[in-house]
Design brief:
The protein is α/β, with parallel strands linked by helices. The protein has 23 helices and 24 strands. It binds ligand C2E and calcium ion (2 copies).
């Protein structure tokens, strides 16, 4: 698992939930502690109140017996039995007083009651404890002090928290007085009643039970127990006589304890939620990433083949060349399919696309690990790394051989071919653009060498390139000057008669320094630099001017695709014909097979326009393209010129079946036929017997100058010529 994934899916969710949990717990602990603090303070107040209430309640209990006429009388009478029942036993059983004493006004004991088994404290202990209170009260009575008397408190009294024989107790002293007021006593003459209640007996338990204090107990020393609350009990003089100690009721802690599981669950829930969110976020980011990668790969790949596109190939080349070490060898191969355009034109783009895909497949089979790019319609590139020159040559050869094998597409076998240009760079410092340029030049040479071949770039090629550039300049000059381009005419004969019936106009370039340059060189050059129109016009003009004076023959001119698709072409042709007064039907325009069958709309319109005007059309080099016979049937031309490659072996029986089929098909379609490249009598005889209309070739005549044509037509003799 990657770090970032771990982070998003687990660590962040865990941290978030831990943080939230900690904050929640912290807040709760704080709130609980505060609540407990407040509760503890309340409980202390309550216990303090209870103790003070206890003091007053002991006094209050006393008054139920001490403010009573009978008590005054019985005490005076010293009726000990009565005193024992009403001021001793009764107080003990009914109010829980632990001891009771009756004193005379001058402080002498009259009666004493000490409950068992708390008799451990002696009468002397009690005396020591209550006598200060008794004498104080006596003085107050004598002074007729009335302070503290109210609806609830019927007589004055003294009470305190104090020790009795080392045991804490509440002691209360009250005068025994008349309840009706009928028995008069002089101030200070009253007998006294003392009630004692020990604090360390069952009192804590009683208070605890009554007020819900847990573990309430009395302690004589200050307990050091953190978990407990306590309050000090003090006598009036401020002496600490002990502590009430109890386990405080902690509502905050209770709530916290009750809430903890819920908090725990919440933290787990938050963690789950955050983790789920983390997973979702991660999932989404993974998806986004893959989308981005898809987009990136779309930007880098050629959609038809899946190979690298031009930009990607070039970038990769730059990057890899920059990384080169001194011993690194890298080669770039430029591969151009031969005659792919013809396939595309003939069968249409869908088949062309399939062919390209199949080519890519074969290349991948040959080079499973190399970087392969498709940089144009039928142009591919390969980057070979760490491979020596002989292996590079071998690879180029294998590519050429593989692409020469027929491709089967939708039941049709299509044979193309490929030319390969190779350029190699060793060590660092090589420049991608330069390497590419060299591979391109090498490719050009491979094509010039006759296609289905590869060429490795060498410095001589740059020399040749410079020559070509010069040639381009020269051609421009030649056309501007208008004298170097000449027109030769090759006579065409009827198969069964000796006189020429037509001439084909062929362009010639007589270079002032280099001499004659063949049309195979300068026609493609002129097409490339956009000057073919000029040559076409020049040849057409010359041909028309020739046959204008030779009414017995017609003329044929060759037209390039660029000319035929140009909108001004028909007008130019027709105006030239008109200018020389030549009947349009005496001109034949030779076009390529693919143009005739799959021409652009503009081309088709031009052909139709010219044919409507009477101009004839012929398919040149028929049989070298890809037209099946059936496709030729819809074609609007007047003649097929059977390519010279079919004528070569015709006398020996080779090819004769094909030529026969072409001738028969043409005749059925009402088309004329011309056989090209006829060099022997046998060929001519064979063609004649197959029903071919016209013959053209070195046997009859090489291309000759216009003066020679005039002489030939006028004399019917043309055995010599120039080619
Ligand atoms: P193409 O139209 O097929 O012209 C016939 C070519 O066959 C001529 O080559 C001619 O010299 C050659 N040839 C004639 N008879 C024989 C023979 O018996 N044996 C052999 N081996 N060859 C023979 P050329 O003059 O070199 O022309 C080459 C091509 O250049 C022409 O092929 C044509 O496609 C093109 N071309 C020539 N002139 C023009 C032009 O004015 N415009 C255009 N667009 N193309 C032209
Ligand atoms: Ca021709
Ligand atoms: Ca031809």
């Amino acid at each position: 698992m990657k770090q970032s994934q771990l982070l998003v899916k687990w660590i962040v969710p865990a941290s978030v939930s831990a943080l939230v949990g900690a904050m929640l717990l912290g807040t709760l602990y704080w709130a609980a502690a505060r609540t407990d603090e407040v509760a503890a303070a309340r409980q202390k107040d309550l216990v303090t109140l209870i103790v003070s209430k206890l003091q007053s309640s002991v006094a209050h209990d006393q008054e139920s017996a001490t403010v009573w006429d009978d008590a005054v009388v019985k005490t005076r009478e010293r009726d000990l039995e009565w005193l024992d029942v009403n001021l001793g036993q009764w107080m003990n059983t009914y109010f829980g007083h632990d001891a009771a004493f009756v004193l005379s006004a001058d402080g002498k004991p009259i009666y004493e009651f000490i409950a068992k088994p708390f008799g451990a404290s002696t009468a002397t202990d009690f005396y020591r404890a209550y006598s200060p209170l008794a004498s104080r009260l006596h003085k107050r009575l004598a002074a007729a002090d009335q302070e503290g008397i109210s609806d609830r408190v019927l007589s004055i009294g003294e009470s305190d928290l104090t020790f009795v024989g080392g045991r804490p107790a509440v002691i209360s002293v009250k005068p025994i007085v008349s309840d009706t007021g009928e028995i008069k006593q002089r101030a200070g003459e009253e007998n006294l009643h003392i009630a004692v209640r020990f604090l360390d007996r069952d009192l804590p338990i009683q208070i605890g039970g009554e007020y819900q204090f847990a573990e309430m107990q009395f302690m004589t020393t200050m307990p050091h127990d953190k978990g407990h609350s306590q309050i000090a009990l003090r006598s009036k003089s401020g002496e600490i006589i002990g502590y009430f100690n109890w386990h405080p009721f902690e509502p905050g802690t209770n709530v916290l304890d009750a809430t903890l599981p819920v908090i725990g669950l919440s933290v787990v829930a938050i963690f789950i939620a955050a983790s789920l969110a983390g997973h979702a976020i991660w999932g989404r980011s993974v998806k986004l990433n893959s989308n981005r990668q898809e987009l990136q790969s779309l930007a880098l790949r050629d959609t038809l083949t899946g190979l690298a596109n031009r930009a990607h190939f070039q970038n990769e080349l730059v990057v890899r060349l920059q990384r080169s070490k001194p011993e690194d060898v890298r080669s770039v191969l430029f591969i151009d399919l031969d005659r792919f355009k013809a396939v595309n034109d003939t069968y249409g783009h869908p088949i062309g696309d399939k062919l390209i895909a199949l080519v890519a497949e074969r290349m991948r089979d040959i080079l499973p690990n190399a970087l392969i790019g498709r940089i144009g319609g039928d142009e591919f590139t390969v980057l070979l790394e760490m491979i020596g020159s002989s292996e590079v040559a071998d690879t180029a050869n294998r590519i050429v051989a593989s692409l020469r094998e027929p491709f089967e597409i939708e039941g049709v076998y299509i044979t193309i071919g490929a030319s390969v240009g190779v350029a190699t760079a060793t060590g660092p410092g090589a420049e991608a653009n330069e390497l590419t340029r060299q591979a391109d030049i090498a490719l050009y040479h491979a094509k010039a060498a006759g296609r289905n071949a590869y060429a490795v770039f060498g410095d001589h090629m740059d020399e040749l390139l410079r020559t070509r550039r010069k040639l381009e300049h020269s051609l421009r000059d030649a056309l501007a000057g208008g004298t170097q381009i000449e027109v030769a005419y090759q006579p065409v004969y009827l198969a069964d008669s000796s006189g020429p019936c037509s001439v084909e106009a062929l362009a010639r370039w007589i270079h002032p320094e280099l001499g004659p340059i063949g049309p195979d060189v300068f026609i493609p050059l002129a097409e490339e630099i956009g000057l073919i129109h000029k040559i076409g016009s020049l040849v057409l003009e010359d041909a028309c001017s020739l046959i204008a004076f030779l009414p017995s023959i017609s003329a044929a001119v060759n037209a390039s695709a660029a000319e035929l698709s140009s909108p001004g072409y028909p007008l130019r042709v027709l105006s030239t014909l008109a200018k020389w007064g030549v009947e349009p039907s005496r001109l034949e325009i030779e076009i390529t097979e693919s143009l005739a069958i799959n021409g652009e709309q503009e081309t088709e319109r031009n052909i139709t326009m010219l044919r409507t005007a009477g101009v004839k059309f012929a398919i040149d080099d028929f049989g070298t393209g890809y037209s099946s016979f059936s496709r030729v049937q819809n074609v609007t031309v007047d003649r097929l010129k059977i390519d010279k490659s079919f004528i070569e072996g015709i006398s020996g029986g080779q090819n004769s079946a094909i030529v026969e089929a072409i001738i028969n098909m043409a005749r059925a379609q009402g088309l004329q036929t011309t056989a090209e490249g006829v060099e022997t009598n046998e060929q001519r005889e064979a063609l004649k017997s197959l029903g071919c209309n016209n013959v053209q070739g070195f046997l009859m005549s090489r291309p000759i100058a216009r003066e020679e044509v005039m002489a030939l037509v006028n004399t019917g003799n043309a055995k010599h010529g120039r080619g």
